[in-house]
Amino acid sequence: MSVVFVVGSEDQLRLGTPWCKRFCDSTHMPVHVLVIGQESRVLQRHAQTTLSNHLEIPLDKLSISVVEKNADAVLQAVKSAGGRYLLMLRNAHDDAMQQEIFEHSPIWTIWLRTSEIPPTQREHVFCGLAQTQSIATSAAEQLLGLIPSKVVVTESLNSQDATSDDAASSSPSISANEIAQGVEQIVAGDYDEHDLLVVGVEDPVPDDSAHRFGLGLIHSQTTASVAMVSDGDSIRQSLHRSLNERIQTWVASVAPPMEREERVALVDNLVLGSKPNLEFLGLISASSMLAAFGLLQDSAAVIIGAMLIAPLMTPILGAGLSLAHGNRPLFKTSLMTISLGFVGALGASILFGLLVIMVRPTSHNHLDWITPEMWSRCRPSPLDFCVGLVGGMAASYAQTRRHLSAALAGAAIAAALVPPLSTAGLQIAFGIWGDLDSQLVPPGVLPVIGPLLLVSVNVLTIMVGASFVLWARG
User: Fold this and answer.
1) Which domains does the chain have, with CATH numbers?
2) Cα–Cα distance for residue pair 422/429, rounded to 1 Å
3) I need a labelling partner for 198 at 20 to 30 A (CA). Which of 35, 301, 329, 358 fits?
């Protein structure tokens, strides 16, 4: 998450830098600078030097990029930067573009007209409208650490809203003349250049009263600074945004987006780990044998140990990544590796079962060797499939966060795959399948078929969960 500072001129850089620093200090977030105009290389260098000095950030650590001078390019850059707050200083020459950005931004957006530094005392911060007081107060508290001391109420504006059917939202019935009267009331008020008027906007569309009032105020001649604020989460904005954008915006608000280098490293790691090799085959075979031993001993501790060494997580996450990106070669490679792992695990558990038959005392009824741990994996249910879905989501999320252990999430994936495979292999070795005496087996069990069905569905749910998280994380 970051504070995105849009710079299009030297004046915007000079006036906006103190506000940007204040926002970053209050939110404890880094800044990402967007320089408007592909030809603004001089402005980019100046912005680097100025913000590096004010924010005390080394030049090589300052995040800055240049974008084309249009609203769509700016909004896309804000999304790529993982912005949480967007700061724009009003420029009369770019009014149309800035208004379009303000109306379509999916994050907190502050459109500021100022000639002074940010206020340091709440006596200088005022809320412009009572009907959007919550947004203005929340913005001032988050970005300045100050709660507005007073709500500026304009009788003509709020009296109309109070008589409407929806007093808390937009009021198309309010005329331009009434908006102008409300603005004039504030302009004529006792406000100076050290004051800040914050106008919250719930729904930045042309017919919204707060939006029209804010535009009138930001274009007025009042000596106080004026900030129009939108939280980027209005009902109409949500309807105009796709479900994809809304999900990714929400995910970015929960966890910081990955840097480009991190994404490249993750993709390289998954691509490399999804290739079949003898090391993978050896580990999955050892894990399957260990799980088979734990199942026969009815030992949960040994089964957990088998999960920890199972290498199935990487190729399945690779398949999830291929689904998210539409990468067919990676999907084929991952599927080949997963199939090799299944064959190896099933074969190893069958061999282990045959070894058990050789070393254990002769028994005419191998059903006596089937433990509750094994029978429990012969009754697949929807709850069992949730293990794969949640495990896939957790493992893929852990892969995108450096401070989290992906091995623990990988054990959750292995829990959904290795024990059922070992169960199927042992039952094949013991000849336990087909029609069995109902008095000797628990009700509802499906030897061999049940564990294999559980594995197959869990692979699909893990892929789906991993694909969703990797897509949402960008």
Assistant:
1) 2-254 (3.40.50.620), 260-472 (1.20.1080)
2) 11
3) 35
